[in-house]
Amino acid sequence: MNLWKKLLCYSRRKSPWLFHMNSGSCNGCDIELIAGLTPRYDAEQLGVKHEASPRHADIICISGPVTHTAVNAMKTVYGQVCHPKAVVAIGSCPASTNVFIDSRVLDGPLDRHIPVDVYVPGCPPRPDAILAGIAKAAEILAARAGQEAQPAAAPVAAEEEKA
Amino acid sequence: MNATTALLRMLVFPGILFAAPAAWFFLWIERKAMAALQQRIGPPFMQPFFDFVKLMGKQVPPREGLGGFLMKLWPVLAVAASAGAVGLLPVIPRSGGFPGDLVLLLSLLELPSMFIIAAGFSSRSLWGELGSSREAILSVSYNVVFLMAIIGIAASQHTFSLQALAQSQGSPLRWLGVLAILICLPAKLHMNPFSVTNAEQEIYAGPMTEYTGHELALWELAHGMEWVAATGLVATLIAPPLANPWMAGALFVVLSVAVVLVLTIVAAATARLTIDDSVRFFWRCALAFAVLGVSSVLLMRIKL
Amino acid sequence: MNILRLLLNNFLGGSITTRFPNRPPADKGFRGLVRYDPQICTGCGVCAYRCSSRGISFRSSRTAYTWAYDPGQCTYCGRCVDGCEAHAITQEAAPPPLYYKRDELNLAHTTQRPLPPPKKKPEAAPATGEAK
Q: Shortest CA distance to C98 belongs to which of B224, B270, A139, A117?
């Protein structure tokens, strides 16, 4: 059993699958994330696969200051990713809303809504910095192998009363 | 073939125990070759195995009722069917077999795509249903060509036994048939020119959209085993008969990997066709070939 | 057929990927984290005024001023560096490091204003761009 745990831990570190979500970003970070998949940086050397379905993913990459319209979608996506999961905030926007601060279409920085594990600073960050962030998030995932329960399933509920 | 050899072939070699690592290896080869053709490094060795283990350790959301049960059932059935298909392959000559096992192999090869169609619809996801309907349309088109090619080959040798096919010499007509099969394989394996079924990003993950955790792991495994079975079928058809079982086994593996590489090159060189274009391709171009092949085989039989 | 030749060249050319822990070096003019030298700073607060994303805040009183910087809020545009008359603000030429908690990289520096000479009353600090 212990061996299985170790193998599982190792595999989680070796194969982080991404789901990329744009929460109102200017597309700069999105382009840099995709640049991380190109031959020059090749995220696949880390075992990264850019998945289209949040159900398949382990790591959610979120770019953009969280707009009002994106909040619900983002929480849904966060809930759809199954248990061992990590969140990488790409760029300055999810960390702090960056230049869009005080805009009335925004609903605050990302960590007001879902717990963030790694922040990749930059506007936009370089692709290699994003890869480093993903590798770090994969290590965090592996560390989460021990806890079998869902870790504090995010304050998703707060949004429901309006709907 | 008695019960014990059948069970051994199903479970040990070349069945599940051999087929699972082979499936991961083939998937890895495919990804690595794709990376090499795009000047990338590609995934580390045996990456699909780690993907499998990771997915096994992932939580699955609670699924209730008949739909949930079916969603758990389909991947298991798909793995069983494709493992059975691999188990039938005559990797080592004279290791048993029965008349008509080619027919069983074809049906077992066809089952996973049936299960994929069913899986997409039972996941109740819009994208799953879209992917499933695409898979259904595509499988109706390529299977006509695929089956005709196989029938042509089998009819030219007067046998439906894989063993006999593997032992017999190739003829020009057989090469035509193999070509037709190779054209159909990308559609069967959801590879690039005909990857409309699970069209990544375009319709999310197609029929697999809602699957996660061990279900998805089993789907990946079934897909890998489909690779092994389909490339193995081609390898069986093109391998020259060898007496030495070790040599024959090694040649089989080498030929299978070569087929994987050919398919990867085709996938890397082409872009995804729309469902209309794929269907049109199979019904207009490939079907003519297949009909030509089958009819010439039948005409030759009349002469004989 | 052109694509096949392309693929062959790609295959023969080998990979052009940078292996993961290695990272391509940043260019010479790369704009990274903002660095601040309290020795040179005159306390004018123009940096906070020029900051396009309120990454720099400048709080000033009669006796002291506090320069605070939040890299999470920073756009790395370099306007503060350009605007600094005394060249007290510079930018690292390296990509900023990852961080794991909000405000982990924040910097704040408080400088005491030199005591005014006893006779004259000190002028108010020019252009104290009071950041909220």
A: A117
In a domain, A160, yes or no: no
C15 with B265: Cβ contact below 8 A:
no
Q: Search chain A and give the residue with CA nearest B204.
A: A52
Q: What is the pLDDT of residues B45-77, one digit of tens each?
A: 989 999 999 999 888 888 888 888 999 999 999
Which residues does chain C have within 8 Å of residue B41's beta carbon, measured at their own beta carbons? 15, 17, 19
| Per-residue pLDDT tens digits for C48-103 | 999 988 889 998 888 889 999 988 888 998 899 999 988 899 998 888 999 998 88
Say which of B37, B41, B269 has its CB closest to residue C17. Answer: B41
| Neighbour tally for A63: CB within 10 Å | 29
User: Does some domain include residue C105?
Assistant: yes
Residue A72 lies in a domain: yes
ipTM topping 0.85? yes
Q: A48 lies in which domain range? A: 2-148
CATH number at residue A29: 3.40.50.12280
C64, C84, C88 from C125: Cα distances, Å: 10, 15, 17
Q: Which residue among A11, A39, A50 places its CB closest to the CB of B54?
A: A11
Angle at B205 between CA B203 and CA B206, to 5 degrees: 65
**Contact partners, residue C119, CB within 8 Å, separation at least 6:** none
Contacts A131 to C, Cβ<8 Å: 20
Domain count, chain A: 1
The minimum CA-CA distance between B202 and chain A, rounded to whole Å, is 8
CATH code of C40's domain = 3.30.70.3270
